[in-house]
User: Which sequence fits this backbone?
């Protein structure tokens, strides 16, 4: 059974600082790994998808890396802004089924 | 092109009542997935449906929960005789076909179920 862990559970940083969010998973037999953003009372917004054959993906200020052999992924957010405050979820995909971590709640202080 | 639509956004039920949650997939999508997010926990897979078929219901509680995706209309997640432990956010996602390795999954805004 796939177990997904996200550390830290919460993070508070001043505006402009870079963010580093960690995700680990126990079973390396995955299709891909996705990072989502969840805002309070709202749904999930897909940020980045890294296929199992890839090492990283970038979109604007976001960069995600994947090391399947060690079961780890890291989401980097450069030059954080107050609008980046949200919960970030990591999900490991095996076929059609997503296994989610509990998330990292980020607060960016102005 | 509207996204995945879920209604209602909030649903309040008393213990013992029935809850019906609706999910309309994105246009052209015929595959629907339901996930549940309990307080302080990650989202957990519940069921995967294709039009008129249940593909995988391994995440559904054995009793009181059922799901359908009829030929016409939205997918429905039905919870009979709700209990306080059913209070959670229920999310629906859809895809045009069985999810592929390079394909993102798009979620609706969820239904927050509160059982009094």
Assistant:
């Amino acid at each position: 059974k796939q177990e997904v862990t996200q550390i830290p559970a919460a993070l508070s940083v001043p505006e402009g600082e870079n963010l580093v969010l960690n995700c680990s998973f126990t079973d390396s037999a995955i299709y891909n790994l996705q990072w989502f953003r969840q805002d309070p009372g709202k749904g999930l917004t897909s940020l980045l998808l890294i296929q199992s054959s890839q090492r990283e993906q970038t979109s604007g200020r976001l960069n995600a890396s994947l090391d399947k052999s060690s079961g780890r992924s890291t989401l980097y957010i450069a030059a954080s802004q107050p609008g980046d405050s949200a919960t970030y979820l990591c999900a490991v995909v095996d076929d059609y089924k997503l296994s989610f971590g509990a998330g990292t709640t980020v607060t960016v202080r102005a | 092109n509207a996204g995945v639509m879920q209604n209602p956004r909030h649903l309040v039920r008393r213990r013992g009542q029935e809850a019906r949650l609706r999910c309309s997939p994105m246009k052209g999508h015929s595959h629907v997935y339901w996930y549940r997010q309990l307080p302080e926990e990650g989202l957990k897979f519940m069921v995967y449906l294709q039009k008129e078929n249940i593909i995988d219901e391994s995440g559904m509680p054995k009793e009181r929960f059922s799901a359908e995706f009829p030929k016409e209309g939205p997918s429905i997640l039905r919870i009979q005789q709700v209990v306080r432990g059913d209070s959670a956010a229920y999310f629906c996602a859809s895809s045009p076909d069985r999810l592929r390795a390079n394909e993102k999954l798009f979620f609706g805004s969820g239904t927050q179920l509160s059982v009094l």
Remarks:
- The mean pLDDT of chain B is 93.
- The longest strand of chain B covers residues 43-50.
- The interface with chain A takes residues 4, 6, 31, 33, 35, 40-45, 48, 55-56, 91, 95, 98-99, 101-110, 112 of chain B (CB under 8 Å).
- Chain B has no helices and eleven strands.
